[in-house]
Write a structure and sequence with these properties.
Chain lengths: ~80, ~120
């Protein structure tokens, strides 16, 4: 990922090369995998912070929070996949 | 009292608060980059490089990089001290845990230096 970032910021031809690399199915899958992990971590982390503030700390609240986290993550990951392809 | 010698702040409470503040910085940066992608559906090199060129964004990127390193270290330390213990690995646990943590430190150091080079080089 850092290599792609460096390449894309180095020069116009580097940016074009990154676009070319991202055309490859394997690179696309890799990018989607990384993005999926990041999105899930982000959403679960926000849920964690909300619980730190004292919301949803009951057994039932925890269950609802977990369901919302999983549902939002699924939507975000599918959206990311649509965006990549 | 034996204090822990491998966690970031030598104190659970300090680590706890650093983890939360770094989390907020990382989330803000992620959303900022995401917003840039949404606002520029046809991203080209000029737009892309101009996003990272300004001084404000350079500082934001650098602070995020520091936050990322602290966040990653606290996270990996927590995971390794929870799951790489004598309970799972027996007598060699300390050796494997220290090796794992050393690997994490090395990786984080590479990310930090490489990241600074990308955002502040040239």
């Amino acid at each position: 990922m850092l290599y792609l970032l460096e390449l894309s910021l180095q020069s116009e031809s580097g940016f074009a090369l990154v676009l070319e690399l991202l055309d490859n199915v394997i690179v696309k899958c890799g990018a989607w995998a990384v993005l999926s992990g990041l999105l899930y971590h982000l959403i679960a982390g926000i849920k964690h912070l909300i619980m730190d503030l004292g919301f949803g700390e009951t057994l039932q609240g925890g269950f609802i929070g977990a369901c919302i986290t999983l549902a939002l993550s699924a939507v975000a990951i599918i959206t990311a996949g649509v965006w990549i392809w | 009292m034996v204090t822990n010698v491998t966690n970031l702040g030598r104190s659970g409470l300090y680590d706890w608060i650093v983890q939360r503040f770094s989390a907020i910085i990382l989330a803000a940066y992620s959303l900022c980059i995401l917003a840039n992608f949404v606002m520029n559906p046809d991203m080209d090199f000029q737009t892309w490089s101009s996003i990272f060129e300004g001084n404000a964004m350079r500082f934001f990127s650098l602070i995020t990089l520091f936050a990322l390193c602290a966040h990653a270290w606290i996270g990996m330390w927590t995971v390794s001290t929870d799951y790489l213990t004598s309970l799972q690995l027996g007598e060699s646990a300390t050796f494997f845990r220290i090796m794992f943590q050393a690997g994490c430190v090395l990786l984080i150091a590479v990310y930090l230096l490489w990241g600074i080079q990308i955002f502040w080089g040239n």
